[in-house]
């Protein structure tokens, strides 16, 4: 602190010094330590600290501890726990730094107490005219100042190294944050694909259900047609058999009663009976063919029904797999 000498009045006889500043007078004893609230002490403190506020420094250190705790929990599980371990290391280093700060401040307290004593002795020797002894006391003050400067430099170096370690952890955390963001984007893309597959599966299930219903209707129609054709063929077979038997009996009886049958002359009635018999056989064959077609249609309908059931099972299985993938994707934690 630079003080205009014109504002200082020294009174050696009384061992006093009067400081006039801003029209305010303060008297200091040359053989006593000034009060901590005096203007001289406050101005010296301001000159040393400049804009730094010790209370603010302490509050910021406490805030750093809380933020490190938040960071420790925020990076849980990232990079296999490596970032969390680094945050834990920063917490431990901060605790060690705080201990160093306490030790350094204790050093300052001890050294400044010695300096104050040396300064009182210096003024005492000067008032007695012992300049060499006064200079010796000032040399001791210099040694105390060197000790405090060394302690300050060591503490500053530790904080500087701690700051670099914190920056490295921050960079690693930001890199991991970017990687987690990419994983999140990829997970969201897969979820969208699963949702699209699910909708596609549901649509396919509806189509298969409609196809199965259509196959069932075709099967029912074929079965009904088969039953109708079978009944018709059965009735026609009975009629044909009866007609054939009657026709054969009538033909035999007519031949025995007709003298022309023995002469080799064609019998008109016999020819008509043979024609009727052929027609009956033809009808029987058509009925058999219709029966075969109905059986073939039933076989194809059953095959279609089986295919529809298999397709429905595949669609159901695909839907279940899509649901399981979606559930697994939703349950997977975001790193």
SSE layout and pairings?
Elements (H helix, E strand, L loop, with lengths): L7 E4 L4 E6 L2 E6 L9 H11 L4 H21 L7 H46 L3 H127 L10 H64 L4
Antiparallel strand pairs: 1-2, 2-3
Task: Write up this protein.
The protein has 335 residues and is mainly α. Helices cover 80% and strands 5% of the residues. It has 5 helices and 3 strands. The two termini are 56 Å apart. Mean pLDDT is 79; it is low at 260-266.
Largest sheet: 3 strands, antiparallel
Structural class, from helix and strand content? Answer: mainly alpha
Question: Rg, please?
Answer: 58 Å
Q: In percent, how helical is the residue content?
A: over 70%
Q: What is the count of DSSP helices, taking H or I runs of 4+ residues?
A: 5
Mean pLDDT across every amino acid position: 79
- Total beta strand runs: 3
Strand content: under 5%
For the largest sheet, list the strands in their spatial order.
Answer: 1-2-3
Précis, in short:
This protein has helices spanning about 40-50, 55-75, 80-125, 130-255, 270-330; strands at about 10, 15-20, 25-30. It has about 325 residues and is mainly alpha-helical.
Give a quick set of tags describing it.
5% strand; 335 residues; mainly alpha; 5 helices; three-stranded antiparallel β-sheet
């Amino acid at each position: 602190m630079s003080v205009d000498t014109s504002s200082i009045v020294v009174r050696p006889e009384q061992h006093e010094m009067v400081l006039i500043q801003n029209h305010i007078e303060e008297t200091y004893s040359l053989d006593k330590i000034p009060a901590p609230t005096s203007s001289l002490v406050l101005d010296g403190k301001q000159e040393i600290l400049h804009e730094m506020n010790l209370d603010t420094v302490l509050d910021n250190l406490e805030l750093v501890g809380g933020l490190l705790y938040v960071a420790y929990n925020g990076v849980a599980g990232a990079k296999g726990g490596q970032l969390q371990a680094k945050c834990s290391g920063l917490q431990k280093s901060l605790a060690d730094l705080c201990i160093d700060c306490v030790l350094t401040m204790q050093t300052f307290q001890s050294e400044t107490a010695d300096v104050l004593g040396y300064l009182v002795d210096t003024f005492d020797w000067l008032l007695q005219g012992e300049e060499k002894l006064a200079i010796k006391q000032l040399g001791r003050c210099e040694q105390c100042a060197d000790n405090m400067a060394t302690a300050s430099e060591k503490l500053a170096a530790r904080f500087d190294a701690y700051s670099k370690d914190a920056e490295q952890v921050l960079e690693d955390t930001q890199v991991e944050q970017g990687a987690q963001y990419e994983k999140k984007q990829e997970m969201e893309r897969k979820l969208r694909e699963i949702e699209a597959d699910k909708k596609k599966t549901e649509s396919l299930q509806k189509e298969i259900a409609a196809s199965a219903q259509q196959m069932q209707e075709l099967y029912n129609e074929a079965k009904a047609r088969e039953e109708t054709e079978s009944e018709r063929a059965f009735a026609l077979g009975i009629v044909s058999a009866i007609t054939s038997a009657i026709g054969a009996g009538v033909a035999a009886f007519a031949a025995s009663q007709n003298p022309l049958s023995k002469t080799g002359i064609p019998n008109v009635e016999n020819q008509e009976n043979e024609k009727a018999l052929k027609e009956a056989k033809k009808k029987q064959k058509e009925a058999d063919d219709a029966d075969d077609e109905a059986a073939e249609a039933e076989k194809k309908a059953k095959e279609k029904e089986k295919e529809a059931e298999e397709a429905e099972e595949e669609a159901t299985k695909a839907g279940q797999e899509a649901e399981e993938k979606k559930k697994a994707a939703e349950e997977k934690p975001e790193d």
